[in-house]
Amino acid sequence: MSGRVVHFEVPFDDGDRARAFYGAIFRWTLQEMPGMDYTLAMSGPVTEQGAPEEPGYINGGMFRRGEGEPRGPVIVVDVGDIDETLTRVAEYGGEVLSAKQAVGAMGFAAYFRDTEGNVVGLWETAGG
What whole-number distance in Å separates Cα of residue 18 and Cα of residue 45? Predict the structure, then answer.
């Protein structure tokens, strides 16, 4: 179902420091993704496929903060069609920050800024 918050992202300047902090504070299970400068953050127990094992929580990730957006924490919302959603974002006064981009074979992502200045992520599952 579209419109659900399905992921969160937290940028970092120092990955080792951020992983140590969030791992200690929240006891998240953190898994670095080789070659991606991205860390998966499991905020609860997961299945062998990495999906939440219990209802009521989502998993996320951590990434190296770049010069552009996003610069702060982001919620990621599931949508059926990123291109259609980005068109609606622009129609309603938001700003598209990145076009649809592939995330391996899993799906697609994009970012926009809402009318209040917040950066929000979009997720479209491949083949969905």
Answer: 21
